[in-house]
Amino acid sequence: xxxxxxxxxxxxxxxxxxxxxxxxxxxxxxxxxxxxxxxxxxxxxxxxxxxxxxxxxxxxxxxxxxxxxxxxxxxxxxxxxxxxxxxxxxxxxxxxxxxxxxxxxxxxxxxxxxxxxxxxxxxxxxxxxxxxxxxxxxxxxxxxxxxxxxxxxxxxxxxxxxxxxxxxxxxxxxxxxxxxxxxx
Length: 184
Fold this sequence. Notes:
Layout: E1 2-3, H1 6-16, E2 19-20, E3 35-37, E4 40-44, E5 48-52, E6 70-74, E7 77-80, E8 85-95, E9 100-106, H2 108-111, E10 115-118, E11 127-136, E12 142-145, E13 149-157
Antiparallel strand pairs: 1-13, 2-8, 3-4, 4-13, 5-6, 5-8, 7-12, 8-11, 9-13, 10-11
């Protein structure tokens, strides 16, 4: 696998809509940086958040996740309670080529504050808004800033197209829009 450069990412974003909206250079003045970088793309978090709550003492069950375990907020700054988490989504909509796998890593700015961003790989031919999970590992409330950088996506090209893509399997998270909860 080869990591793909800013030249390739720009070309694909502009020619095929691989990333929409696409920011062609790093923006960082007064905010957590986002946009195209040397070998990746720093995506922004939208202003839609689902903040985990234990008000109803629900059991966390990935096969039957209780929607009442979250409080929905549309806000410029999300406050995550201590030792809790929130779900959000990227501003950007992604369309992954068939011969590419995309891996996501959290921004160092958040990591250095004890805030971990988790995303599973974007598989070949997956498309949608990416659901982001922000874990606050600290004993204090933590802030997440909407419309600013949240994580970096790295694009890896396989030596050949895969035999079965996410689209071929009709994956359950295909074409997701908004913050998407676990599905079985």
